[in-house]
Amino acid sequence: MRLRVVRADPAGNITLFVLDPVERAARPRVAELLMKREEFAAEQVGFACTAREGFDGRMEMAAGEFCGNASRAYGMLLARQRGVTGKARFTLEVSGADRPVGVDVDVAAGAARASMPLPESAEQLALPAAAGVLVDLGGIVHFVTRRAPDEAVLGELEKALDARRAAGKFARMEAYGVIFLHEGRMTPLVKVPAAHSLFWEGSCGSGSLAAAVAESLGTADGAFARDYVQPAGTVRAEVTWKRGAAAAAYVGGSVALGETVEIEL
Fold first, then answer.
1. Backbone angles phi, psi at 29, to 5 degrees
2. Residue 224 and residue 45: Cα distance in Å, rounded?
């Protein structure tokens, strides 16, 4: 199988885009093989798809999950393909999102910002090793905790999620993670079971939004914004609250693109 791919770097969350059609059922295996290739050092894989009328593009992640950083990077890729040299706005279809995703691109600044799914729920959760807030972004769930990074927390989270799924919650959870906030930095640990991937990610867009939701939960109406410094980059997350509910959410930051290459898989 020969594939054209582009390596994208949205704030260190290395994403590989596959430009050629790949059947949905084969994508998790294709992504698994691509992430094993050392020359890419990719943390995740997205697939370019044919967009419906009214959209500028469609991108689907390997396991059908949503990814804010990949959405931002795909907007930048569309800008390159269309010869944009300044600013542009694209309306995308993205897997895991039940509404259009708007991406604002500034090619000259090497940055892009994406609208994000609004949190479906946010609840306090106490695990044996950590307490925090469990944020459901619809398809991806993050546990935000103020403690030093420790992979053991993920195992505890998985048990809590299993119990909730048995009770009928999180029916369409394609991915989940633990977002560690410690000593002024954010460290994301994210698992996508269908893609057989578990990464200490360079940065995480949805995790950044989950952190912003957790840190502003219960505050007065208005906008909350914070730059989350992560292992390989910084992501700015914004959430606007109205009458106790999230009304708008965004993540933004740097995006760099490599050249299109053709590989044999």
1. -70, -40
2. 30
